[in-house]
Design a protein that fits this description.
Blueprint (H helix, E strand, L loop, with lengths): L2 H15 L3 E6 L4 E4 L1 H7 L3 H4 L16 H11 L1 E9 L5 E12 L6 E10 L1 H16 L5 H4 L31
Antiparallel strand pairs: 1-2, 1-5, 3-4, 4-5
């Protein structure tokens, strides 16, 4: 098998193995290619995503517009932004995005962009927790830091002060 016929398969495998979302789009924002991570995030097979736009996915209003992104690409060759997208799971996810200008190989004119979208949601949450942690250290209520003996729980019967598991089922077999 020639090197040329092996390379597309190797690159496809590499493209799909990356956990970040990788995509290729034209200047109109139409997705020409997307990897498996992108398909999983959007909850659709790649075949249903190719030919559509990210604008079809719910995007936060603070995300840069396609025109602004293209302008940055034309001026700098690259663009960095942070966007919020709602995934197939219905949750909002924050991504750090980097797009690089893609030139038509024949004419060397701008043809689109290829990009990497790395999810940073958990990183942002951890950074926020780290910023807030000092405000709460040493300020916990005394009863939380040193609970009174009366607050001890009886693990065997799942009894806590003010909360007891019902010993007998109610009418209809439902416990309170």
């Amino acid at each position: 098998m020639s090197r040329c016929s092996e390379e597309p398969c190797v690159y496809r495998d590499l493209f799909d193995a990356v956990e970040d979302i990788l995509y290729v789009r034209d200047l109109d924002g139409v997705i020409l290619e997307i990897n498996e991570a992108g398909a999983r995030f959007l909850g659709k097979p790649k075949e249903k995503i190719i030919g559509t736009t990210f604008h079809g996915a719910p995007v936060d209003d603070r995300a840069m517009s396609l025109m602004e992104t293209n302008l940055a690409l034309l001026e700098n060759g690259t663009d960095r932004s942070t966007v919020k997208l709602t995934g197939a799971d219905g949750a909002e996810h924050v991504f750090e995005c980097r797009a690089t200008l893609m030139l038509d190989p024949r004419t060397r004119t701008p043809a689109g962009a290829f990009g990497v979208m790395r999810e940073i949601t958990m990183t942002l949450i951890e950074e926020q927790r780290a910023r807030l942690r000092p405000a709460f250290e040493g300020n916990a209520p005394s009863w939380l830091a040193d609970p009174p003996a009366s607050a001890a729980s009886d693990v065997a019967t799942c009894e806590l002060p003010g909360l007891r598991e019902a010993k007998e089922p109610r009418k209809g077999g439902v416990r309170p």
